[in-house]
Amino acid sequence: MTTFLRPGDAGYDAARSVWNAMIDRRPAVIAQCTSTADVAEAVKYGRTEGLEIAVRCGGHNIAGLAVPEGGLMIDLTPMNAVQVDPEQKLAWVQGGALLGELDKAAQVHGLATTAGNVSHTGVGGLTLGGGMGWLARQYGMACDNVVSYEVVTADGTVLTASADENADLFWGLRGGGGNFGIVTQFEFRLHQVGTRALSVELTFPRSAGFHVLRGWRDLNATAPREATFTANVTPDAVIVGYVWVGEGGYQLLPALRALGPVVDESIEETTYLKLQTRDDSLQGHRFRRYWKGHLFKSLPDEAIHALLGTPGARASLQAYGGAIADVPDEDAAFSQRDTLFEFVTSARWEDPAEDEAKIAGLRAYAATLAPYANGAYVNTLNGDSIRRAFPPAKLDRLIALKTAYDPENVFHLNQNIRPDQMPTDNAA
Ligand SMILES: Cc1cc2nc3c(=O)[nH]c(=O)nc-3n(C[C@H](O)[C@H](O)[C@H](O)COP(=O)(O)OP(=O)(O)OC[C@H]3O[C@@H](n4cnc5c(N)ncnc54)[C@H](O)[C@@H]3O)c2cc1C
Q: What is the set of domains in the chain, with CATH numbers?
């Protein structure tokens, strides 16, 4: 049964807090739903009352899109159950579950599916935008592993979307974000990945960065799918390495060590579950946050110069490729499958007085990389146009789908695809 929270109620402030501490909005009502029927009722209630509707799963959208000022927050967090069938290798995951809940339930059987790198991120927002993770090069994005969705649409109807049922909606939900309805259950395909993983990070002086990043880029081109290459540019150093899911994974180490003068090494054999929670504290709540992202189809030498060209700047790169690129682009809303690396520059701080300078610094640095970018990942958009995430033909199809399923744009607090708009008018 739904619990309704209003300003002043116990639990109201906790329920409206999200990952980015810069977000301090006050919904008129928070509907904490416990079932699909609750969600359908909440949508109808919000529309009858004329309230702006937002949907909350893990609360990790950087811009706090889950929290409407003065509106209705449909809070899915009580709906976090995960059921696994190890025989069929399937998982049924409620729309408010966190990644850690899915990982834990599946790993009991040595199973997993692609999920993100921080366990307190929501399955909902991550999967609806695509869902990148350490298993994506082996098994595709999280959305590529969804067999079916249970969805509450803008008029409160409950639908199933799968390859055989409402196939148009199924297409759009695989990467089109929260535009088409509220997903109350995801059915995921699982894979027998075992429980082991290896994490490799080699630190080089920043002065050797150009040579190291070039070599790392070239090694990535032939890396097996078990390996996901990573790089971090920090004010003093360049850290390159990879995450390997499965047994073994040491064969890439000598070539990486030969890239330059290694000043530090972190080589950790770990469990898949520990890997999936490794960055949980670093990425913890309570900090003010900002990021900018790009997708690169290639990483020419000039782009490497630009990565290293801003003193004090920080960047992270994560490799795409493998199974992500096996899926034909037209098969799902998720786009830019030919991405080579995803770039993010981000910062966290605590003093609001630093907001302006931090944000300006990140924007300026990201702008120096923009000439090499082909777009951006929909889940990393932060004030960017939606057209950075979808090429024009995809956006046309998404607009038509949005017009069919949510003509009044009830679900607009997301990376919004506006109905009945020409793509050229659809700038966010
Ligand atoms: C610390 C951190 C680590 C991250 N790591 C990764 C990563 O490894 N890989 C990756 O791909 N992304 C990653 N991201 C980006 C992440 O995918 C997005 O921030 C995503 O929006 C988070 O989803 P959420 O459910 O936690 O967020 P929320 O803020 O709760 O939701 C975001 C939006 O998603 C929609 N939504 C959420 N759930 C539902 C639902 N059940 N039905 C309908 N709409 C819904 C709503 O429109 C909502 O506004 C990371 C983000 C953070 C902050």
A: 3-75 (3.30.43.10), 82-192 (3.30.465.10), 196-380 (3.40.462.20)
